[in-house]
Amino acid sequence: MNSNEIALVTGANKGIGREIVRRLGARGFTVYLAARNPGLGAAAADELAGEGFDVRFVQLDVTDVDSVEAAAKQVEADSGRLDVLVNNAGIVSEWDVAVADITAAQVREAYEVNVFGVVTVTQSFVPLLRRSPNGRIVNMSSGLGSLDLLSDPDGRLATQGLLAYSSSKAALNALTLVYASALRRDGIKVNAANPGLVPTDLNSRASVSRGDRTTADGALVPVLLATLPEDGPSGQFRGPGSLDEVIPW
User: Fold this and answer.
1) Per-residue pLDDT tens digits for 1-23
2) Which one of 46, 91, 182, 225 is most buried, by most CB atoms within 10 A?
């Protein structure tokens, strides 16, 4: 099913994003490893290509419209279409800051990447996804974006205090549902993945970031959503252990 399909993963030079690239490459995809830093991104792509996968670096900063548009033009020139877009790039902007002290600037910084960056990338690549017989978009969300889970004032997620990150992921979930509805007529599926808590650079300062989950564990559900068949679901929030795990919005 996946032979000769084309995928692009943002923020993919390390962590879960890199593992998603590896796993899609192992399934026979041509994968564009998109990263903001040219040196780190090209090195990661070269290492994965050295393992025998068709991985190609493309410079892409989700907060820079020009770089996103240039990346879309590169994919179009090289491959002519896109089958899978994984919006993986994300940041936390408020480590060690009490909720009452979080500034609008910190919230804005998180939204620039986690929300506006997703809109920028999606808008630029939808024309290429429309050329696919089975277009798929996977948005990397988090349990911290679940309003249902956050509504428990004594729950573990609500007490994390990551106002900017949590609200940006809740906004991302809303984007997922609206895009899923709007793009259904084009045959493009849009889903959100919860990778679970995996120790990465993103959450290295979190008090609960220690654990035995690996980047391979975190990549499991995003890859399953990226490889859905034509009759697969859309507008779903799944993970972290399997597609059977439905996360409440």
Assistant:
1) 455 899 999 999 999 999 999 99
2) 225
Query: Cα–Cα–Cα angle for 49, 53, 59, nearest 5°?
Result: 55
The residue among 75, 62, 69, 68 whose CA lies nearest residue 118 is 62
In the numeric block, the tokens 């909720």 are attached to 99
> Of these residues, 32, 111, 165, 179, which one is catalytic?
165
Cα 34 to Cα 68: distance, rounded to the nearest angstrom: 10
Domains of the chain: 6-238 (3.40.50.720)
**Residue 6 tokens, joined:** 């084309």
Is 126:189 a contact under the CB 8 Å cutoff?
no
Q: In what order do the strands lie in the sheet with 6-9?
A: 54-59, 30-35, 6-9, 84-87, 136-140, 189-193, 237-238
pLDDT tens profile 187-230:
999 999 999 887 656 555 454 445 567 899 999 999 999 999 99
pTM listed for this prediction? 0.93
Whether 179 is a known active-site residue: answer: no
* Cα-based torsion angle of the residue sequence 63, 170, 24, 196 in order, rounded to the nearest 10 degrees: 120
Task: Tell me if residue 165 is catalytic.
Answer: yes
